[in-house]
Design a protein that fits this description.
Strand content: 5-15%
Number of helices: 16
Largest sheet: 7 strands, mixed
CATH topology of the largest domain: Aspartate Aminotransferase, domain 2
CATH superfamily of the largest domain: Type I PLP-dependent aspartate aminotransferase-like (Major domain)
CATH class of the largest domain: Alpha Beta
Number of strands: 13
Radius of gyration: 23 Å
Strand order of the largest sheet: 2-8-7-6-5-3-4
Shape: globular
CATH architecture of the largest domain: 3-Layer(aba) Sandwich
Order of helices and strands: HHEHHHHEHEHEHEHEHEEHHHEEHEEEH
Distance between the termini: 54 Å
Helix content: 40-55%
Structural class: alpha/beta
Amino acid sequence: MITKQSLNPNLLHAEYAVRGPIVIRAQQLEEQGRKIIYCNIGNPQALKQKPLSYIRQMLSLLEYPELMKHPEIVKMYPKDIVERAKQFLQKYPHGTGAYTQSAGIPFIKQAVADFIHKRDGIQTNKDNIILTDGASKGVQSALLTLLKSSEDGFMIPVPQYPLYSASITLYGGKQIPYYLDEENSWQLNEKILESSIEKARVEGINPVAIAVINPGNPTGAVLSLENIQMIIRFAKRKRLSILADEVYQENVYDTRQKYYSFAKAMYEMKETDVSLFSFHSISKGFLGECGHRGGYTEFRNIPSEVMTELVKFQSISLCANAVGQIATYLMVSPPQPGDESYDTYSRERDGILGELKAKAEILGEKINEIEGMTLETPHGAMYAFVKFQLPQDPSVDFGTMSDEERAAYEAKRDTDYCMLLLEETGICVVPGSGFGQLPGTLHFRTTFLPPRDEIEEFVEKLREFHLRYVKKLEETYQLVDA
């Protein structure tokens, strides 16, 4: 019989913190009747964000076209929605139950190309776009495509979304962590990048790509154009491909900040030697359609023979799911002014983004009022990476610890904190060690997706818990020291 020891060791070593032991315990407590405030994962509709009417109206007609044969039902839909559904079925009469072309339905890929052109003012070839089952599948395909040997490595941010570390471990590659600059709004620091890649090369690792998340997960940071340009120049010097995770591009709340795509920056720099994989998804932004699993990867500076291999890779899975492809189409080609559905669409979109902005500001203001906690108000995405301080155990001597021992000690500290936070308050967050953090610092990641009243409740419960937790630790350490 199969045993755990007989499994692929890469699977055993892979870790995915956002659905780890704390979340399992939260679900157990919920089954026991406890109220849980889930702040562990970016899953908007599970946290009471309503789906956009436009998306669901279109999907209902495309999933069951028979509805359009009944005048009394058609009257329930905006006229432009019905007309678009009919046009879609004319272009793609096979319906949602059939396989599509491997790289995706061609006119949807063209719609994605048009979306990028409108967003950035740059030309985009639909043949350099592959529709995927969410951005995660695109990222994993890129990692597998670039991984030639077990000594190949990928530069990943710290803190990072654990999709990257888990997938690299699963596929047998090497991680090359680089620390984001917390003191400089979580931007990338060129000296840190240089140090990280040189350290990896000394260890015999062959760097092949750098992953960048913008806007950031878990930090909520928005990278400046200058920072993106620096990254592109760095990648060119080091002969790295760029994996640009841009799934939160619609989520920018600070009017002083602006989202810049890597594609546009490379175009303006006239950079043609750096290969770019850029990812987008229907799960984030203001759509929150996580369950439909749709997204795309756009490729730049990729030779045609390489694109052929990438499409072949996609064809091994036949194609992305058809409904996810349709939802991606709806994301990139929303209602326009003059359409009957436009007012509802724009009201729902602006309402979602407005609420996210307000909740980000609540976190930024209230958490910084808690003694021993700091947070730069998130400028984008839907996460906050909260830094907190705990009194130091006088019995612990870091000078005698290896780096691995210190990391394990600090991971236990933030995990114990987050687990007790859950047990006492019902708040479910993820320890910072699950994303990576600078030695000597402690963090946790929270979303600000729950309704505003739950976010306000979250902050007040967090304040009371933190002060109580710190006081108890101080009393314990005083006894030890005595």
